[in-house]
What we know:
The chain has helices at 21-27, 40-58, 65-72, 76-79, 81-104, 106-123, 130-144, 148-158, 164-193, 195-216, 230-241, 244-272, 280-285, 290-298, 300-326, 332-360, 365-432. The protein is mainly α.
Amino acid sequence: MPSASTGASTTVGATSSVTSPVRSSTAAVDSRLTPGGPGYRRMSFALFLAGVATFALLYSTQALLPLVSTDFGVSASEASWTVSAATGALALFVLPMSALSERFGRRTLMTASLAVAVTVGLLVPFAPSIGALVALRAVQGAALAGLPASATAYLAEEVRPKALITAIGLFVAGNSVGGMSGRVITGWVAQEWGWRVAVATIGIIAVACAVAFRMLLPAPKHFTPGSLRPRVLTRTVRDHLANPLLRRLYAIGALFMMVFGGVYTVIGYRLTEAPFSLPQGIIGSIFLVYLVGTVSASTAGRLVARLGRRGSLYLAGGTTTAGLLLSLVDSLPLVLLGLVLITAGFFAGHAVASSSVSHTAKQGRAQASALYQSAYYIGSSAGSTLGAVAFHAGGWAGTVALGLFAVLGVVTITLLGSHAARAQARHEPALAH
Length: 433
């Protein structure tokens, strides 16, 4: 994929009237964060914690769906709306939230979003009905919409371009840790005290993450407030959607997340049934495979350096496909291995695609990232609902078929990108002559 400027400022002291050689040399220094430099570790850990809180809250009910179904007397597809409502609301609100971050600042919006989300998280355990639970989860998802796009825009502005993929990979790794810990903790707590106590526990953990995030995240030094005028926002969004590369990346993010959302929404139902018949605590522990996602996301930078972006996406798609096929076998070790491969492929693909969006967008990075996040969570919402419907209609094989169809879409889109890149390469030399 072609490189592009991140659009972040690379000079300091630009408004100074002093023109001495010493000051001119200083003005050329790139003051953005870099691995090993001051503030980089604090920034990385703060956004890692934000990622933990986001995914732990967003998917707090996913591992508990069989218990939610039993408690409220609803089907798997109805219970899945406690996940789909949260991810769907996030997809709907991420673009407006990104516009607010352009005006009021990334750190300010991320702090406010986490504050609202954790407050709602403490109310979720008291939901009196499935309808109330779905409504609370939708509000929580809308609040969390302020995190993903703002975080990637913050990184694009505050981190040097060469370190951007690694920095975003660490944020995505926080997502995987949050998703893993949320599901593992809820599984064991719910086995002893029920799903309500389990989601309350996640809420308390998220409060701690939110407080630490606000204390650790360095104040932005390269943020320039933008406009909230609808005309400006509409023009920026239109420009991003007119970019074929960005459109392909948005579709890839949605399709990868459709696989992931469908698999992890339904896997609990599969493992509670014969021939596995596992207890809730053990099912929650299955999500320890998210650690694989932590590794694959955090090493995405090295993967891209070796294979290129399109090569990395092909590898991610192939790994996910192998995992889906393995999971069809009625053998717990093979199902677990399948989940490992699905998780590794998904997180690698997501890290590569999301970092490519930030790398490609020349302006309006928050909106570019927001459009990616919107597509990504639309994929999650669709995967959760369609995965449950497919499971109801055709069992686990139905959910796997849905996943394979989505991966085929990823590979097809990446092939189209490769073809477009070759065509452009042939066209440019012709223009030169």
